Amino acid sequence: MPLELKKLIADRFGENYELHARHINRTLVKVQRTIGFDKIYAKACGAYLYERDGTAILDFLSGYSVFNIGRNHPAVKQALSDALEMDLPNMVQMDCSLLSGLLAEALTRRLPKQLDSVFFCNSGTEAMEGAIKFARAATGRPGLIALQGAFHGLSMGSLSLMGCEAFREGFSPYLPGVSHVAMGDLEAVEARLSGGGIAAVIIEPVQGKGVHYPADDFYNHLQSLCRKHGTLLICDEVQTGLGRTGKWFGFEHWGLEPDIITLAKSLSGGYVPCGAIVTRRSIYQSTFRTLTRCVVHSSTFGRNNLAMACGLATLQVIDEEGLVQNAERVGAYLRDRLHGLQLRHSIIKEVRTKGLITAIEFQQPRELGAKLGWVFLHSLEKELFSQMIATTLLRRHRILTQVAAHGTDAIKILPPLIIGEKEVDQFVEALEAVLVACRNFPGPIWDLGAGIIRQAVKA
Description:
The protein has two domains: 167 residues, Aspartate Aminotransferase, domain 1 (Alpha-Beta Complex), CATH 3.90.1150; 247 residues, Type I PLP-dependent aspartate aminotransferase-like (Major domain) (Aspartate Aminotransferase, domain 2). Helix content is 44%, strand content 15%. The strands form three sheets. Strands 4-10-9-8-7-5-6 form a seven-stranded mixed sheet, with helices on both faces. Strands 1-2-3-13 form a four-stranded mixed sheet. The chain has a four-stranded antiparallel sheet with strand order 11-12-15-14, with helices on one face. A hairpin with a 2-residue loop joins strand 1 and strand 2. Helix 6 packs parallel to helix 13. The chain is globular and about 70 Å long.
């Protein structure tokens, strides 16, 4: 008897948070309820999530950049349907599947010619783990350099590269030989490289946590130092790749020539997890250098047919719908509108954006009412203001965003690359309404912030 999935979902709809509290992550459930993000979504399409009553929520988070092509894209659904209908042999392991070869070919066509070899896995953190192994095998060196503030994943190797301490607490000791330097500190980089033993320097072209990137040619000098010392440059494109920054890959903004890149998130089309390591053939073969080492690094589900079909369909959608170009164009429109907003509201400190990855950072405002509210909330909890903004955008304006990083007064937006000026206008107008309301203290906005703290204490 087949599973009656539709009936099961209809019968149990609405039990989401109770089931998670009982069997999965009850702490996350408490957080969602505390900040007012405990919505139950019934449907998703394109740039929108829908509640059971049909209320539309504009998704400016995109599953942290998983849904670059929007949610439930028909082209990816069709590719999955076709793959299932064909009853293809899947994960034989001791074979070479056609779909993985085709996706590898499609990826390398969009990259510099030296990046011609692909290893498939399931996630961004798994891609980073593999990249560490590839770099060590190719150089014979153990050391790694990452940037402060970086986010590279949450398994032990990628966590060792992590530059966000909030994610590292309680999990030491980390992978030995890893050091962190501040973005822009070339002297620190050269000092470490000169000491020898460094296999790779790892960067996110645009750091996902907080949306930080150099305003100058730091990356170019960094690459030159890597070449000088025989060190590999790894670009983590898990969040920035496949059009997010207005170019196919984030490293293109600086004209870099990385030795290894990592991909995941949007390569899945939002359906089946799909990650990839792309590198030069010589580096690849350093890992698989003899016949007996042909499977020394592997991933059971890495080349599965459904993931490969999703990847192929996703790349085709990005091409056919011109989403890279759209991210550049709409991203510029968003940047200009936010800069206009900044001129009208002293509470906006900075707008950082590349294509459609954006952080809006706040500061203590000049207006008296807003200033009093700012001081009040910051006396309770530093991150509370930005969470209050994100919660208000969701509750009052039906727009999903989130805090940019731990310990920051900033929100981050990652809309799907399919959006246009209409969605940008909706977001900017909603944000302006929230910021105008912040000028009234005491008032409903500030009451919401205090309410979040009360709920957190109670939880």
